[in-house]
Design brief:
There is one protein chain. It is built from 13 helices and two strands, in the order ααααβαβαααααααα. With 304 residues, it is mainly alpha-helical. It starts with a helix and ends in a 5-residue tail after the last helix.
Length: 304
Amino acid sequence: MFLEDVLAGTIRSASSVLFAAQGEVIAERSGVVNLGVEGSMLTGALAAFAVTAATGVAVIGVVAGAAAGALLALLHAALVIAGRANQLASGLAVYFLGLGVTAALGYRYVSHPITPLDAVRVPLLADLPVVGSALFFQDPLTYLALALGPLLWLFMYRTRWGVTLLATGERGEVAFAYGYSPNRVRYLAVTTGGALAGVGGAELVLAYTQIWVENVTVGRGFVAVALVIFATWDPVRATAGAFVFGGALSLQLQLQARGVHITPFALDAAPYLLTLAVLVIASRGHALQRAPEGLAAVFGRARG
């Protein structure tokens, strides 16, 4: 059934972007923009695929993907916090580093077989019409991705650590006055964001594509960064934005599978164009005014 296939594809396509977007919400809430999310996704994807191919255990691969993504994000954090580098330039440099490293090391894993993350069927719920197989017959990382937005919202607004994160992104001196190191919080936030992006890359290759190819993420990390701005740095809205991208990608694939006579170049571009259109419509003129104060200098925005 067309609707069921599109819905199931939406969930699967959105999962990797969900991890990356929620990770970037954490980083930017601390006052650091990381345009290297795409690089963390790529390195996480390659590390996860390589370790899974070597061990035959996908769970170990996911851990390796998280570690690789975190390591690249830690480099970005060191450059912008300790080295006071321009955040946008540093993020792009880290992205190109991840792209180059994965291209140089990943060629040997093209067409390499792995043991993927298997889908887990939820009894009874998976038998529901239309939504059953889409929501309740997915891999474990997809279930985690779906829960991540609400969990992160509760963390940010209902826990002391979350309030500390928000305070650091708004006014670092306030967090310092209460005994917290703003730089330490930012290091932890950016590294955690990179780890989540790495998990997103792992989910992409271990559950969604189940193969490795060069530049397998094809811009998902940059979409994730854009979604954070569209969501006005809110994790629940970021989840909705990821579903917009996933839905557009799923629709494109289903149209191609059914032989719709549209140029494949237009179909390939459609998910990104639709996501861009939604971002423009939903956030024009207002999103940057809601940005954490710590990002004012990055976006060239004056308060008030």
